[in-house]
Write a structure and sequence with these properties.
Blueprint: H1 12-32, H2 39-45, H3 50-56, H4 60-82, H5 92-103, H6 107-119, H7 123-149, H8 155-173, H9 180-198
Helix pairs in contact: 1-2, 1-4, 1-6, 4-5, 4-6, 4-7, 5-9, 6-7, 7-8, 8-9
């Protein structure tokens, strides 16, 4: 925590205002995109004057850094709730895949995906996003998603988690244009079967069933 993260006078009112700004930034990143969500538009959404916005975030870099931290915190909260044990009789891997698929459509996850896409051509954003990406890869998915699937820590189990994670993330970003619901349902079912096969759970031996 330093002067770039919190203003010099971190009063309760100031902290509430900052939280409002960061919430507006997260939602606008998700709804209109990183580049469209300018500081001015975020200030307007947070019902602040330009001067009030500048008091809290003097530069785009400061806002982006704080917004990434806010989005990561919100993603962690959602992940924590989604990690609850499945109901009796529900396969842990299928529960984890359904839970992560639902998370990918929540505002914090949509906002983060937008930042990752924008970071490809924005060096400042890419630099500030790197630590959050690494933290999520190691902690959020590596341990919590693994616990949700109830798989081990060996390479095979890690691959099952990666398979589930990256196929779902790719599916969330994909641009299907016809039979969307049916195609997604079939793909998610194949992902579930593949993860179970890698985890050697149940009697699943084929990815496709007639």
């Amino acid at each position: 925590m330093d002067a770039r993260t919190y203003p010099a006078k971190a009063t309760p009112k100031s902290l509430r205002t900052r939280a409002r700004i960061l919430e507006a930034a997260m939602r606008l990143f998700a709804e209109v995109g990183y580049h469209t969500a300018t500081n001015a538009l975020i200030a307007e959404a947070a019902k602040l004057t330009r001067g009030a916005m500048l008091y809290h975030f003097a530069t785009r870099e400061q806002l982006v850094e704080a917004a990434i931290a806010h989005i990561e915190l919100e993603r962690a909260k959602l992940f924590e709730r989604a990690g609850a044990a499945p109901a009796a009789g529900v396969d842990a891997a299928e529960h984890a895949i359904d839970a992560y698929w639902a998370l990918l459509r929540e505002v914090p996850f949509v906002a983060f995906a937008e930042l990752e896409a924008a970071a490809r051509t924005d060096p400042m954003l890419r630099e500030r996003l790197a630590a959050a990406q690494s933290a999520f890869d190691h902690a959020q998915v590596g341990s919590r998603f693994g616990a949700m699937i109830q798989a081990g820590a060996d390479a095979r189990s890690q691959t099952s988690r990666d398979l589930g994670r990256f196929l779902l993330e790719g599916l969330a970003k994909g641009a299907m244009t016809y039979d969307v619901d049916d195609r997604r349902e079939r793909l998610i079912e194949v992902v579930k079967r593949a993860v179970r096969m890698l985890n050697r759970k149940g009697d699943v031996h084929e990815l496709w069933t007639e």
